[in-house]
Amino acid sequence: MNEGEGVRRLVLGLVSVTSVTVAWESAARYGLVDPLFLPPPTEVLATAVDLLRHGYRGSPLWVHVGLSLGRALVAFVAAVIVGIPLGVMIGISPIFAGLIDPFVQFLRPLPKLALIPLVILWFGIGEFSKVFLIFLSASLSIVVGAAAAVANVRRQQIRAGKVLGAHGFALFRHVMLPQMAPELFVAVRLSLGIGWTTLIAAEMIAADAGLGWMAVNASAYLRTDIVMLGIVLLGLTGYVLDLAIVGLQRWVTPWAGRS
Amino acid sequence: MVAPLIELQSVSKCFRAQRTRQETWAIRDVSLNIGEGEFLCLLGPSGCGKSTILDMLAGFEGPTEGRILIAGEPVGRPGPDRGVVFQDASLFPWLSVIDNVTFAPRLSGVAPSTYRAQALELIEKMGLGGFENHAPYELSGGMRQRVAIARAWISNPRILLMDEPFGALDAQTRLEMQETLLAARGQAVSTVLFVTHDIEEALFLADRVAVMSRRPGRITLDIPIPFPRPRCYEALIADPAFSRLKQDIVRILRQEIVARRETDRA
Ligand SMILES: Nc1ncnc2c1ncn2[C@@H]1O[C@H](COP(=O)(O)OP(=O)(O)OP(=O)(O)O)[C@@H](O)[C@H]1O
Ligand SMILES: [Mg+2]
Fold first, then answer.
1. What's the 3-state SS for chain A?
2. Does A181 touch chain B (CB under 8 A)?
3. Which chain B residues are Cβ-neighbours of A181 within 8 angstroms?
4. Domain B6-81+157-265, CATH 3.40.50.300 — does that match?
């Protein structure tokens, strides 16, 4: 994407977001929808200011955001550390793949909500259970992506590496890994989305703070404005995380898609 | 008489298709010797097994039958003592030009001071001066191929294996590359096996041309190319001996293609 295209996309994005926000505000203000079902943006903003000042159920707003982000980030880092080597081993060794793959394929499509009772039973209702749930869904998708990345390494590049003297681990480190890197980033990026989605499920485990918990808790009291605020913040934070990954990808693998 | 550097002794290679399990004999009973310092061009119709021979010499594949010896020893695992230049350059896109060129010596763990000057000189000689820090995707196809040659050359390989290295280039660039190759080789005379489709290219470059039959490939013609070096392309194509050789080879390749049509029809 060149610079002009980037600017155009930014402008288009701003135009569309502004239009939707204005339409949403007008709909609520002119009585087209009941503010209980759809509180206008100005009210959500006022709620945000209020929660920043006075907090929600004992925790300031930034603690909710920070806590959710912290849980997700710890889970992601763990998922990358565990998932990439596991996926690469599955991709390289057919025997290892045969042994491990059934479990990966069984767990991956399983809705993580179904695991909540078990996770509580095993690990209790503390932070570990929440992080574990996010970790589980994120790492499974990284494993699958990393295994696919190994399969896509080009034979010609392997041959070029071998004939230049790279064998065994050196071949992996200097030829296969760099070639897989762009795809590994894609896998991490997808898993970020999946893991972030699991956050609400994770925070349903007897949490008393966090964005997901805040939204679910507020709905019980018909505080639609807080529910809305929680949703907007969840979406925005997820968006920022995604941008960060894309930025990191451009920086680490500038050759991606150009060879 | 000294033993040739490369010996193929009644070599056959059979591939088995992964899904159908059907057997294909790529080459059958090929015997070929290449002497130290010789430049051999391998010509032949598509699919006759030229790349297969090269892959076996590089050590990527083993023969199904027969023996392949290099300096009297069976072919070992691939390594920088046998440089390979592929048709599509196969550079590492995550490395700059200089890092691609110095890939093999860096891996062998010797101090950069021992190869850096040589690498820069080689890059200069290949006409890539000033592009050391460019990425491969910032180069033209011809420049990429020159980096690939420099990358194979820096280890001073005893044998250079080239599989249609200039096949994807336009006629002008191709000629330039051929001249660069001959000039660069002038100093360090290594043994070269060069696969090509282009008869003129073979006659311009080689000391000897071997022509293969259609699949399963055998060597049907093995002739020395007598033109003295250094060769000048313009003078060469004006030489009647050049045209005669070219016609002979065209005739043999044609017979191959006609024979294939007939067997296909039968
Ligand atoms: N990995 C493989 N598996 C199965 N068959 C193969 C394999 N590699 C080559 N072959 C077969 O061997 C034959 C020779 O292939 P090869 O690539 O050596 O031909 P070539 O002479 O280099 O052709 P071209 O000029 O088109 O590059 C082909 O007909 C192909 O069917
Ligand atoms: Mg070929």
1. CCHHHHHHHHHHHHHHHHHHHHHHHHHHHCCCCCCCCCCCHHHHHHHHHHHHHHCECCECHHHHHHHHHHHHHHHHHHHHHHHHHHHHHHHHCHHHHHHHHHHHHHHCCCCHHHHHHHHHHHHCCCHHHHHHHHHHHHHHHHHHHHHHHHHCCCHHHHHHHHHCCCCHHHHHHHHHHHHHHHHHHHHHHHHHHHHHHHHHHHHCCCCCCCHHHHHHHHHHCCCHHHHHHHHHHHHHHHHHHHHHHHHHHHHHCCCCCCC
2. yes
3. 94
4. yes
